[in-house]
């Protein structure tokens, strides 16, 4: 029995998606609940699984095609895995596929799936050098990725020879590669430009002595890991300090909706996470009710889901304040851009030892620059500075976080 393969029902904030990767091709058998296709939206990648044991009968929306919520993108034939043979008995369809794909590949002997071909082109990989594990020796996306990974581990020697034939330019010319933006990258670009064009954005800076936090971590790290099964990081301290500061300065925890200022009576803090696809901001709900261990576990969970592309829309919506850490990449100081419709964002940076004057003497201390970008339409400079000073004081004397002083 044939059934329709439909795109998932998108949330209200998502208008359409793009077919990213077909993990199964027509005629290929698949098991119930096995992943068959990924749909990329401007926020997350949604997975579509097989409704039952059977085969992919027909693909109506190819990779790169746009689809709407609930739109039919393919057809599925239910039945045992052995029923994939009838799909092979179509000589016309079988003969056409290699003819269409062979010219696009660098080798006429290699048969690549569209996703595999794209990945091979991006990494300058000769398909003929990749061993195909798919049906009829087809080179899959996973085959190309494994080849790229193994090449990197061996110094990249295997991937380099294919680079010369791929680039067909005259001597002295400089090659270029044009790649369309992914939906996530396009969405990020649009939001950042909107934030700069619509908000009266301003940034205030301060610096914090990280020695007290570092000493605290060193003293209790082993006990913390033994008790909670996770390491004590810096982000949990910053999250708790920001939570307490947001209680004292409600305007920083607010958002603008048209001509209205919305003050939130709760603290949902977004933590910016970098992935291969771009920057995403999952949200720690009700951070006031979370302990340091809860925050660390949730951040690790979000980080893992982000790398695997499994963050849900619900994980990334509704935050009231954002923290971003450029320090993990070595950034010494920067001006973070607002995450609309929030009115402020806190930027953490690299910890660097610097000579500081302490009680008339010079001491070498581990210092970090802090940056608070804020919407001046909503927040006055005085509030922004006081908010950042409150965070600085709590981090330099962690007992203040517990005592709320």
TrEMBL record:
Domain of life assignment: Bacteria
Name of the top EC class for this enzyme: transferase
Pathway recorded for this protein: Amino-acid degradation; L-lysine degradation via saccharopine pathway; glutaryl-CoA from L-lysine: step 6/6
Keyword Acyltransferase: yes
Gene Ontology biological-process annotations: L-lysine catabolic process to acetyl-CoA via saccharopine; tricarboxylic acid cycle
Renumbered residue ranges of the record's region Disordered: 77-109
Function: E2 component of the 2-oxoglutarate dehydrogenase (OGDH) complex which catalyzes the second step in the conversion of 2-oxoglutarate to succinyl-CoA and CO(2).
UniProt similarity note: Belongs to the 2-oxoacid dehydrogenase family.
Protein known as: Dihydrolipoyllysine-residue succinyltransferase component of 2-oxoglutarate dehydrogenase complex
Organism of this sequence: Marinobacter excellens LAMA 842
Organism classification: Bacteria, Pseudomonadati, Pseudomonadota, Gammaproteobacteria, Pseudomonadales
